[in-house]
Amino acid sequence: MSRLSTVLLACLLPLTVSAAPVTYVMDPLHSFPNFSVNHLGMSTIHGRFDKMTGTITLDQAAKTGSLEAKIASASISTGDAKRADGTRARDEHLRSADFFNSAEFPDVVFKSTKFNFKGDEVESVDGTLTMLGVSKPVKLNVTSFKCAPHPFSKKPMCGADAQTSFKRTDWGMKFGVPGIADDVKLNLNIEAYPQ
């Protein structure tokens, strides 16, 4: 009987270990926050932030998790970083007090309050977006979330794509409205590895 118990325990042990919460650290080279906003009612301007750090903690058995992402607002890039004629480039303007005020508020932070599952899949993440010193609730809609071994290194990893929309004036970013649209679409593309 004791031998049977030992075999059963050995079989159950990996399941117990895998059911524990695991914390993943974002890979800054493959985690990509990007956004789009309408310009003058004519076209859509796309931009990105080159620096994002953060963690994801996931307990797949309990269907719980947490996410914290910190975006360096000064790392914004929209394809207009420096102008040959010396006039202020769009990226410089976006770092100014008219928009992100990066000198006073260097970070844009999303911190989750709840992971929402549909079956075994993460469907959305409720949380708080803090920008310009203002914190407001935001829901990230998860279009893809997968944990599996890296196809080359075979190390465990998780990847996710999530998106949300919000009105920037709710955070006090009012410059240029309505010519530069109030509605902003934000995408978070994330790859992360166990810490």
List strands and helices in order, with pairings:
Blueprint: H1 2-19, E1 22-26, E2 32-39, E3 43-49, E4 52-59, E5 64-72, E6 76-77, H2 90-95, E7 107-118, E8 121-131, E9 134-149, E10 156-167, E11 180-194
What's the CATH class label?
Mainly Beta
**SS class:** mainly beta
Per the CATH scheme, the topology name is Lipocalin
The tally of strands reads 11
Q: Work out the helix count.
A: 2
Give Rg in angstroms: 21 Å
Number of separate domains = 1
Mean pLDDT: 91
Q: Helix and strand succession?
A: HEEEEEEHEEEEE
Please state the second-level CATH architecture. Beta Barrel
Query: How are the strands of the biggest sheet laid out side by side?
Result: 1-4-5-7-8-9-10-11
What form results from the Cα inertia axes? globular
Tell me the CATH superfamily: Lipid/polyisoprenoid-binding, YceI-like
Would you identify the regions where 5 or more consecutive residues have pLDDT less than 50?
Answer: 1-18
Summarize the structure.
Helices cover 12% and strands 54% of the residues. It has helices at 2-19, 90-95, and strands spanning 22-26, 32-39, 43-49, 52-59, 64-72, 76-77, 107-118, 121-131, 134-149, 156-167, 180-194. It has an 8-stranded antiparallel barrel with strand order 1-4-5-7-8-9-10-11.
Note down, in words, how this protein is organized.
This protein is mainly β. It has one domain (21-194): Lipocalin (Beta Barrel), CATH 2.40.128. The chain is 12% helix and 54% strand. The protein is built from 2 helices and 11 strands. The chain has helices spanning 2-19, 90-95; strands spanning 22-26, 32-39, 43-49, 52-59, 64-72, 76-77, 107-118, 121-131, 134-149, 156-167, 180-194. Strands 1-4-5-7-8-9-10-11 form an 8-stranded antiparallel β-barrel. The longest helix has 18 residues, at 2-19. The chain is globular, with a radius of gyration of 21 Å. The protein starts with a helix and ends with a strand.
